Amino acid sequence: MITVTASAVKQLRQMQAEHPATGEVGLRLSVENGGCAGMQYGMAFGEPGAEDVRIPADDLTLFVESGSAQFLAGCTLDYEDGLTGSGFRIHNPNAVRSCGCGTSFEPARSA
User: Fold this and answer.
1) HEC states along the chain?
2) What tens digit of pLDDT does each residue of 10-54 get?
3) Which residues of 10-19 are buried (b: 16+ CB within 10 A; e: fewer)?
4) Residue 30: CATH number of its domain
5) Bridge pairing between strands 26-33 and 39-46
6) Which long-range contacts (CB under 8 A, 24 or more apart) does 43-46 make?
7) Residue-wise pLDDT tens digits, 65-92
8) End-to-end CA distance of the chain, in Å?
9) Which among 5, 48, 53, 56 is least buried, having the fewest CB atoms inside 10 angstroms?
10) Domain count, the chain
11) Which structural domain, as residue segments, surrounds residue 55?
C-alpha cells in the first residue's frame, strides 16, 4: 500500500529515539480537505485509531486513517535532506496536481 524508503525509516527511528513513548505509538498519516490544491497531508506521532490501517516498515509501524487509505494507496514516503531544507515527502501517484510546497494535492477522480 505505502512504500517507506530507507531514509524515511532511518529518520523515523531517530525521531522515536529522541522522543520515547510508552505504548503503541507510530507515525499516523492522514488526508484531509484543505490546502491550496484541495487535499492536504497530515503526519503526527500517535496511537493507532480503532480502524486505522497498519503499514509495516522494517521494525516500525505506520498508521493510516481508514478514510485516507484510498488517497495514499501506492504512495512512497521519503525523507529528503538537501541544501534548501529537509523533511518528509509523499510521492503520490494518485495526485493530478500538487502545490509547490508538497503538502497538498488534487486527487485523481477515481481515488
Assistant:
1) CCEECHHHHHHHHHHHHHCCCCCCCEEEEEEEECCCCCEEEEEEEECCCCCCEEEEECCEEEEECHHHHHHHCCCEEEEEEECCEEEEEEECCCEEEECCCCCEEEECCCC
2) 999 998 888 877 778 889 999 988 777 688 889 998 899 999 999
3) ebbeeeeeee
4) 2.60.300.12
5) antiparallel
6) 43/88, 45/15, 45/16, 45/19, 45/21
7) 999 999 899 999 999 988 888 999 998 8
8) 14
9) 56
10) 1
11) 3-107
Return the biggest CA–CA distance within the chain: 40
Note whether 48 and 62 are within 8 A (CB).
Answer: no
| Residue with the three cell numbers 500500500 | 1
Give the span between the Cα atoms of 32 and 15, in whole angstroms.
24
Give the up-direction half-sphere exposure of residue 69: CA atoms within 13 A in the CB hemisphere.
12
Instruction: Note the pTM of the prediction, 2 decimals.
Output: 0.82
Nearest CA to 62 out of 80, 81, 41, 82 is that of 41
